[in-house]
């Protein structure tokens, strides 16, 4: 686990209001803080878990990471990026941010859309249309299990609130059933892993030794190194999302 110091966060993940005034798609790197760029560079180099306080800009790092993979996932290539979040509200929020700050084709998916009833042809249409898929993890897991998505085409997997990667939870099943199995088979070009959390320890009231064990388990299952940014400085304006 790596540590990085900074000032304490106060607000939700955000991007300066001035970005809204720019023509075209605002470039997140133009207003990112130094610690965000440092975490981004680590995430580009290796699988990373960003451990930052709520309000310290984890979403901005994720957006910049997606942009760094644009050349690998842009059509007509078949490669894709997967951005997983645990709630429908976050599906909408993160998809809005990606559309605001990238020119990539973003699809958003959650259970109430009836995706459980979609067949291979419908998912092929989505794969032919979109480059970034924002969804709840159970949908991605089901698609992998039904072979609607080919794991080899996934270049980037983002796990929002990745502390939910435990036991039989969908995040854990995705890693155990697909990522680690492919790693054992020596499959090349496994997707980059980026996890985000404000609390990497899932259990409450545990001892220091138990906390360390949970962090180790999280790093192991995500095959990633946890990078702690202590008290990263807060940003001043809410995320620049059209219509908000």
UniProtKB/TrEMBL annotation:
Gene Ontology molecular function terms on file: ATP binding; nucleic acid binding
One Gene Ontology term, aspect cellular component: cytoplasm
Domain Helicase ATP-binding, first and last residues per copy: 39-218
Basic and acidic residues composition-biased segments: 1-13
Organism: Taxus chinensis
Record-linked PANTHER family: ANTIVIRAL INNATE IMMUNE RESPONSE RECEPTOR RIG-I, HELICASE WITH DEATH DOMAIN-RELATED
Coiled coil feature spans: none
Lineage top rank: taxon: Eukaryota
Region (Disordered) residue spans: 1-20
Name listed for the protein in its UniProt record: Helicase ATP-binding domain-containing protein
């Amino acid at each position: 686990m790596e540590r990085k110091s900074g000032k304490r966060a106060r607000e939700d993940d955000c991007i300066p209001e001035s970005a809204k005034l720019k023509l075209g798609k605002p470039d997140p790197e133009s207003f990112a803080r130094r610690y965000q760029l440092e975490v981004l560079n680590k995430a580009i180099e290796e699988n990373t878990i960003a451990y930052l306080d709520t309000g310290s800009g984890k979403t901005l790092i994720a957006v910049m990471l997606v942009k760094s993979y644009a050349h690998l996932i842009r059509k007509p290539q078949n490669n894709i990026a997967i951005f997983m979040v645990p709630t429908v509200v976050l599906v909408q929020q993160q998809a809005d941010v990606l559309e605001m700050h990238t020119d990539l084709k973003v699809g958003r998916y959650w259970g109430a859309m009836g995706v459980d009833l979609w067949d291979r042809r419908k998912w092929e249409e989505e794969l032919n249309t979109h480059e970034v898929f924002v969804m709840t993890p159970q949908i991605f897991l089901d698609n992998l299990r039904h072979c609607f998505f080919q794991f080899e085409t996934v270049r980037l997997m983002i796990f929002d609130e990745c502390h939910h990667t435990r036991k039989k939870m969908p995040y854990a099943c995705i890693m155990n059933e697909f990522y680690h199995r492919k790693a054992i088979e020596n499959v090349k070009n496994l997707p980059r892993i980026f996890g985000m959390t404000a609390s990497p320890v899932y259990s409450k009231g545990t001892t220091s030794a138990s906390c360390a064990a949970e962090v180790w388990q999280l790093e192991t299952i995500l095959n990633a190194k946890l990078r702690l940014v202590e008290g990263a400085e807060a940003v001043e304006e809410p995320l620049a999302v059209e219509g908000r």
